[in-house]
Amino acid sequence: MQSDFFQASAKILTVAELTRAIRGTLETKFGAVWVQGEISNYKLHPSGHQYFTLKDQRAQISCVIFRNTLPPFAQPLKDGAQVQIYGQISVFEARGQYQLSVQILQGRGVGLLQARFEALKRKLESEGLFDSEQKKPLPKFPTRVGIITSPSGAAIRDMLNVLKRRAPRLEIL
């Protein structure tokens, strides 16, 4: 019965063939595009290439600026900067990942996500929540621990077994 599913005429692709086909489709369909977003996870690689994530509130895409593509910026790139980018969609076949190869980058100030983060930080600071007098000393040994994981996975069972042996009085949340 299972052999009916695999018909002799069916084309079975290798991973490389599928990735190459995806690359061709993406690079042909989109070509070069303008995209606006906020920079995060910025890294300047020793090779001179620059890597970062361009994001908005609902999505993100990996970006690369190859070392000889653009002249040095008057202001260095940094996380939280709002930018408009003109670039080419490309697929890195070895990892099966797509990215935007940046050809033009225009700064547009501080991004919305960064601005919200800074506003929240200022608000909490004005409430005195970062003052050292507000901070409570951490106990030498915790009495209560919260574990965030799947309730039915092996990780929670392993953690509970280890904690039961090593810290039987510990309260687990």
Neighbour order of strands in the largest sheet: 1-2-3-5-4
CATH superfamily of the largest domain: Nucleic acid-binding proteins
Unreliable spans are none
Tell the overall outline. Answer: flat
Helix share bin: 25-40%
Distance between the termini: 49 Å
Radius of gyration, whole Å: 25 Å
- Describe the largest sheet: 5 strands, mixed, barrel
Q: Under the CATH scheme, which architecture of the largest domain would be assigned?
A: Beta Barrel
State the CATH class of the largest domain.
Mainly Beta
Notes on the protein architecture:
- The chain has 173 residues and is α/β, with parallel strands linked by helices.
- It folds into 2 domains: 15-110, Nucleic acid-binding proteins (OB fold (Dihydrolipoamide Acetyltransferase, E2P), Beta Barrel); 136-172, no CATH class.
- Helix content is 28%, strand content 32%.
- It has 4 helices and 7 strands, in the order ααβββββαβαβ.
- The chain has helices at 2-5, 15-30, 112-126, 154-166; strands spanning 32-44, 50-55, 60-65, 81-92, 97-110, 144-145, 171-172.
- The strands form 2 sheets. Strands 1-2-3-5-4 form a 5-stranded mixed barrel. Strands 6-7 form a two-stranded parallel sheet.
- β2 (50-55) and β3 (60-65) form a beta hairpin.
- 9% of the residues are buried.
